[in-house]
Design a protein that fits this description.
about 200 residues; mainly alpha; NK-Lysin; 9 helices; disulfide bond; SapB_2; Sphingo_Act-Surfact_Prot; signal
C-alpha cells in the first residue's frame, strides 16, 4: 500500500514537471523511468529547501493537476506519506537506487549495483543530513519554535522520525547536539544551508 501511494506521488511529480518542460517522444516509456524522473523532481525541490513542510507544500501543488473531486484525497496522501518519501531520498540522491532498491520499481541491472549504496560516513551523506536538519530547524523557528529546549527536542525527534537508518539517526543527532547553534549562527550571517554546513565541516 505504501509503495503504491509513493508511486502516485512520483507520477504526479513527473506529469507536473512535464507540463513545464514537455519530454521528448519516447522519453517516458516505463514505470521505472517515471519513478526516476519523479525522484529527480523531488530532489530538485528538496535542494531549494529540504524542510519537510516546504517539500510537502510543493508536492501538494501537484494535486491541482488532477480532477477536482480527487484533490482533497491527493493532498491527504501527500501530507501523510511525504516523510516516507523523504526518508528514502535523504540518504541517496541517486534516482536509480531509490527506484530499484528502495521502491523496487526498477529491476537491478546487476547485483553489484546494490553494493554501491553510500555509507553513512560518506561526506555527501553527512552533508545531506546536515542541510536537511538545518532547514528543518529554520522552518521550526519560523513557525515560532525558537525556544532552545523546544527546538533541540523537536530536531532530535525529527532525526529519529525521518532518518531511515539508525546510523543516520546518530549522525543527525550528533549534528543537532554539537553544532546546531553554530550552524544557525552561520545561517543568520547570510550563509545558505550548504555553506553553513561546510563551515562546520559537514559538507
Amino acid at each position: 500500500m505504501l509503495k503504491s501511494l509513493l508511486v502516485v506521488i512520483l507520477f504526479l511529480a513527473v506529469f507536473s514537471n512535464a507540463a513545464r518542460v514537455p519530454p521528448k517522444e519516447g522519453d517516458i516509456t516505463t514505470a521505472c523511468e517515471i519513478c526516476e524522473l519523479g525522484v529527480r523532481f523531488i530532489i530538485e525541490v528538496a535542494q531549494k529547501n529540504s524542510s519537510i513542510t516546504y517539500v510537502t507544500e510543493e508536492l501538494q501543488h501537484l494535486c491541482y493537476i488532477i480532477p477536482r473531486g480527487l484533490q482533497g484525497a491527493c493532498q491527504e496522501v501527500i501530507s501523510q506519506y511525504t516523510p516516507d518519501l523523504i526518508r528514502l531520498i535523504i540518504t541517496s540522491d541517486n534516482p536509480e537506487e531509490v527506484c530499484s532498491n528502495q521502491l523496487d520499481i526498477c529491476s537491478s541491472s546487476s547485483s553489484s549495483d546494490s553494493d554501491n549504496v553510500e555509507n553513512v560516513g560518506d561526506d555527501a551523506t553527512t552533508c545531506r543530513i546536515c542541510t536537511f536538519i538545518l532547514n528543518d530547524a529554520i522552518a521550526i523557528m519560523k513557525a515560532g519554535g525558537s525556544r532552545a529546549e523546544h527546538l533541540m527536542g523537536a530536531l532530535n525527534s525529527d532525526c529519529s522520525r525521518y532518518m531511515p537508518d539508525p546510523a543516520n539517526t546518530i549522525t543527525c543527532q550528533y549534528i543537532v547536539n554539537t553544532s546546531m547553534k553554530q550552524l544557525l549562527a552561520y545561517n543568520k550571517k547570510g550563509l545558505d544551508t550548504v555553506a553553513a554546513c561546510g563551515q562546520c565541516l559537514y559538507c
